[in-house]
Amino acid sequence: MKYTYTEKKDTRSGFGAGLSELGKTNPQVVALCADLTGSLKMDAFQKEFPDRFFQVGIAEANMMGLAAGLTIGGRIPFTGTFANFSTGRVYDQIRQSIAYSGKNVKICASHAGLTLGEDGATHQILEDIGLMKMLPHMTVINPCDYNQTKAATIAIAAMHGPVYLRFGRPVVPNFTPANQEFVIGKAVLLQEGTDVSIFATGHLVWDALQAAESLAAKGIHAEVINIHTIKPLDEAAILASVAKTGCVISAEEHQMNGGLGDSIAQLLARKHPAPMEFVAVKDSFGESGTPEQLMVKYGLDAAHIIQAAETVMKRKHERILR
Q1: Which of the residues 7, 48, 60, 192 is marked catalytic?
Q2: Distance of CA 99 to CAs 104, 135, 273, 315, Å?
Q3: pLDDT for residue 301
Q4: N or C: lower Cβ tally within 10 Å for the chain?
Q5: For residue 16, which of 39, 30, 205, 6 has the smallest C-alpha distance?
Q6: Where are the beta strands (DSSP E) in the chain?
Q7: Is 60 a catalytic residue?
């Protein structure tokens, strides 16, 4: 199937739209922001529900404590700031006040990864998925486009427990259905294939589809699966795909250590060893540049997914010949 899109939209706006819809349908939903209301697209919620919006200022640790406290009264708090400040700056507060006791806080993080662009390495957090997935009780979600981010935002309000929802700043192809059902922990099969499995998350899902199209022209049939929920991981979907194709690529805008590929590799090591390649940042910080420049420089694009596919398939064939 060839995927197309009519417009590009930023995933952070999908979060803002989902939050506004929740404000209308769920009176228990409240929002907290650390002085970045416009950047997180929380303006509409703030305007329509001022008594349920809390501007805490540049005090992210305090915001997490407030959010944890609000859950005790039955509220469903959504916190909003950049991914760097949502995780690294407040890890102790999340661990002790939210994850440890399973508080019903939704940690919503924008401007994640290299596509933050010109703000540079200090803000381009590439370790956040690893930080969050290591915490017991924490669900970790990384949707791929505007529509899926909106659907994910609405879905996490209905589940009880802490969630880390990751999204970004740049406009990207909006290609998933507007009326989609978002099922937490359920991978989405985008394209069937028999030669190689490509498991992608976030902004790399579209690149995976583009790579699969180019591979098809070479006679290579790639299976593309959108892993929007990194924890809990859809182990059944991954194992079923790998049993069919025999080799794996993971693609993500994150460090190789601690990311989606790390989780898949652990699963395969335990249940179905197979050749695997990682399209991810290889143990380095980012730098200032346009999102497009950085994604190419750090190897996070369709061209590098194609290269990884050819490499891993060669390894698969060598393994068969032994």
Answers
A1: 60
A2: 9, 7, 32, 40
A3: 98
A4: C
A5: 39
A6: 8-10, 29-33, 53-55, 76-82, 106-110, 139-141, 163-166, 171-173, 188-191, 196-200, 222-226, 229-231, 248-255, 276-281
A7: yes
